[in-house]
Amino acid sequence: MLKPLRQGLPPLDPAAVSDAASCALPARYEAVGEARRFTRRTLDQWDVGDRFDDICLVVSELVTNALRHGLPIPHQRPSGEADAGRYAQPPAVRLHLLRWTERLVCAVRDPSDETPAPRDSDDFSAESGRGLFLVDSFADGWGWHPLAGALGGKVVWALFRLRPAD
Question: What is the separation of C-alpha 69 from the centre of its chain, rounded to a whole number of angstroms?
Fold first, then answer.
């Protein structure tokens, strides 16, 4: 089990952020394509140099993981009236992109308290299970942390170092 990681994150001072964008994503797999399109439109406006493809790939993996592992499974939802309101609307997955001068963070929030765990598998023909391995390979750092208060859930983030503009 991975412990929450906070090291490597840029300061969360909003005044230090050069650019920021976020979008809510519906609880369906088509949202991965929506996240990619949102990321491409946003990065087209920001100077991210040669990291464009890496960032888009990692966003796809983080959003896929949030949808696959971070949302309640419909057949496991409680049927009692006390919990009916809690599941009336599917919990949102939210994508955040934050850019500083020389780094960018993509963060995906989901309602699950489950720890993201890379799978140990030697099956290279498997069609799933390598998402966090890809995140680790293409990002300069990644981690996660639980959310406190009424939001609950967690944020899984990936950090990219950007080359300074010439």
Answer: 12
